[in-house]
Design brief:
Blueprint (H helix, E strand, L loop, with lengths): L1 H26 L15 H23 L3 H28 L5 H16 L25
Helix pairs in contact: 1-3, 2-3, 2-4, 3-4
Length: about 140
């Protein structure tokens, strides 16, 4: 039950944000937005976001794998929804461009960059070594 709660806490915000994005894109039928020209996330920025996200995900994976079987389960529970969300955003962003839906493309692209950067705050300043599994505390807090 404890693992289920951990996974739920890890994904609660992202599930809500992804659901809101999908609903927003479904309801918003605009092809373009007045005054929006170009992109707010040029390719070098998107590439940097991907690189930063990859570094953070590698740190998270290294940390979880140090927890043994429990860490492996939590890592899989973290990575599968993350990967599914990433693929959906990437595919939708790529499809919107050739279809001429520049506003939809830009919105998917912005959220894709944000998703890539999302694991970053999980990295502490001492990211050179994996985090230790918290020691369970039994009894009253002192």
């Amino acid at each position: 039950m404890e693992d289920i709660n951990r996974v739920a806490i890890m994904h609660l915000g992202s599930v809500v944000a992804f659901g809101a994005l999908a609903a927003s894109r479904t309801m918003d039928k605009r092809v373009t937005a007045p005054g929006v020209v170009g992109t707010w996330v040029p390719m070098p920025v998107l590439a940097a976001a991907h690189l930063a996200g990859a570094v953070a995900l590698a740190w998270i994976a290294r940390s979880y794998l140090g927890w043994g079987a429990e860490g492996q389960r939590l890592l899989v529970a973290y990575l599968i929804p993350y990967a599914v969300t990433y693929v959906v955003m990437l595919v939708r962003q790529r499809r919107a461009g050739p279809e001429g839906r520049s506003w939809a493309r830009e919105e998917w692209r912005l959220h894709l960059a944000a998703l890539c950067l999302a694991p970053g705050p999980a990295m502490p300043p001492s990211a050179a070594r994996p985090a230790r599994r918290p020691t369970p505390h039994y009894g009253p807090m002192a």
